Structures are given as C-alpha cells and as structure tokens.
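Teaching assistant's notes for section 4

Start the section by putting this record on the projector. Ask students to predict, before seeing the second block, whether Putative enoyl-CoA hydratase will look compact or extended. Collect guesses on the board.
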Amino acid sequence: MTSPSSEMITLDADGVLTLPISTADNGTALDHDLVLAGTEALLDVTRGVRDAGAILLTGAGKNFCAGGNVAKFAEADDRAEYLRGLADDLHRFIKVLYQTRLPVVAAVSGWAAGAGMSLVLHADVAVGGTRTRLRPAYPGIGLSPDGGMSWALPRTVGAARARHIIMTDQIIDAARALDLGILAEVVEDDAVADTARATAAKLAAGPRGSFAAIRDLVHASASRTLTDQMDAEAASISSLSTTGEGVEGVDAFLAKRAPDFRAAR
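Reveal the predicted structure now:
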C-alpha cells in the first residue's frame, strides 16, 4: 500500500526525482516519514527500478527544513533511543543518496536549520533565495550535529570556520552562504523552486557517467594524495572515453552540434 509520504515523491519525464523532506506540518520540521519514503525511492534508483538522472531536494512548506521536530524529542519515553533512531534513519537516507551517484540539487527556500542545513551541505548544487537563512541550531538545544554536518561543513568552509559556525550557532544569510560555497546560486525568493528544478532537469539530461565520476573523484579527493588522485582521474577519463556518452560527446564537439546524451545511453 502506498503511503501519503510516498505519493509526495515524484519522478518526472525529465528524469528528476523530487524528494520533499518537510511539509507545512510541525513548522516545516524534518519529516521522518518523508525521510523513510525518500530512502526507499533512492534504493529504487540504485536497483534500477527508477530511471532517474538527478535528485531534487525540496521543502513542501515555506522553509526548506527548520530542523528536527524538537517537540517530539521531548515527548519520547526514551529520548536517547528515539534520537538515535532518527539519526540512523537520516544517515541511511544520506548514505543511499551518495550511493545513487546522481547529481543532487537542493531548492533552499526560507530556513535550513539543523538537519536541514546538513542536507543542504550534501547537495552538489544548492539554490537559495535572498531571504534564505541557514543555522546549525544544535548548540541551542544542547545537542551535537547529525546528518553529516560535522563531515561536510569542514570540507566546504574549512575546519576552523566550521567549528566557529557550529559552536556559535551562527545564522548565515544567503549572501554569506554564497561566499562560503554552501549555496551555489542565489535568486529571487519566488524563483528558487523553478531555478532548482531547471538545474536538476539540465543535469538529468547530461552525461550521467561523467557526473557520477565527477562526484566520486571530488568526494574521494580529501583522503587521497595528489598522485593517487591523478591516477584515479586518468583511469576515469580513459574509461569514460569508450562509453556511449563519451563517444557522443566527442563526436558532437567535432560536428559542432549539441550532444544527445539521452540517446547515447
């Protein structure tokens, strides 16, 4: 039986898999049911059940995600067990997000706090609006980060700045988030959703092998020496050169026409 959360997840004709992570309910807090449904949708991608070319993370309310549902934290009979379960489920979602090897776009309208900010950091392209705000939020309730924030933020802004941002619970406006490299683009607030979706559609139409390799190379670079990284680059570009997309890209360039990567898959 299809759950209401599953019905909010869509795969359109352009190959964009849209995964909402919050709704207007509970003040746009991270929706646990949507996290679980999103994980299943992502697993379908890894199994080849869904033919997606890009992933779009969105909020279904005024905010991308205002963080965890703190009221439910307080209601839990065993708070430690409850929070561990939430964190494990969110982390499984993020792990499978990476396993798809697909480009990830985030439409960051309004606030992205706590786990919402963590998810923004895992996007390849995060599009915000002029009123977008990000905040770690964890110290404000006496907790530590989850959602991979303590891994992703140092890789984006540097370890010293990440510690400063998280420990002082900074509110980061759109302009600063753009300067820090957390947001890739800032547009008018009413254009965030359309811009992010158009970006996801453009990526979905592009060379999937190339994008997957780019993500793999960039993510692995932090733990490799320069020599090892260049060896990986050489192996990757060589391997891609004989794929349908690689051949089409080179042929199209020489013919001075736009490549048709969809047809080449």
